[in-house]
Amino acid sequence: MEKVNALFRYVGYVAISIFLGWVSALGGIESDFLFNLKNSVIPVLLTLLVLFSTISNLLIKEVSLYSKERNVDVSPLVNSFKRNTIIEIVIICALFCIYISTGFLSRISCEYIKYCYRVFSNSATVFAFMYFLIVIYDSQCALYTMLKENNK
């Protein structure tokens, strides 16, 4: 059941991302806020990746303290953080490739293809931000929960 919930969650992320990417592209290239962010997205996502890594390390430390008292295996948690870090790096690499291909696609004379690509690029940007922020939020909530639990 957990895999079905994860599937629906990602389908929801994609649907919201496509909708927001399309809405941003409606005003044209001059007022397309998301498309104009492409110069600063990668550094911001790298910063969020570092923040996530820091929170992950703090959470693993707290769970390790908790597990010493109750003999709990922390390897699933460590594997989960490792998987999330790999996903975040893949998202950053994918966005980098999408933004690089912007120059190539700007030479295409078909406005419809340019528009579709802009919507795709915007959607990828929204998806990346949503994914990063949700992962950081979940990790931060878990950290606070573990801090409360360890300080009882």
Word description of this protein:
Helix content is 85%, strand content 0%. By secondary structure, the protein is mostly helical. The protein is elongated, with a radius of gyration of 19 Å. The mean pLDDT is 86.
**Total E-strand runs:** 0
Alpha plus pi helix count: 5
Please provide the ordered H/E string of secondary-structure elements.
HHHHH
> Separation of termini?
33 Å
Please bin the fraction of helical residues. over 70%
Largest sheet: none
Query: What's the alpha carbon Rg, rounded to whole Å?
Result: 19 Å
* Strand coverage percent: under 5%
* Average pLDDT rating: 86
Shape, per Cα inertia axes:
elongated
Q: Show unreliable segments.
A: none
Write the layout of secondary structure elements.
Elements: H1 2-25, H2 33-36, H3 41-70, H4 75-105, H5 111-150
Question: What is the structure about, briefly put?
Answer:
With 152 residues, the chain is an all-alpha fold. 85% of the residues lie in helices and 0% in strands.
Features of the shown structure:
152 residues; mainly alpha; 5 helices; single chain; 0% strand
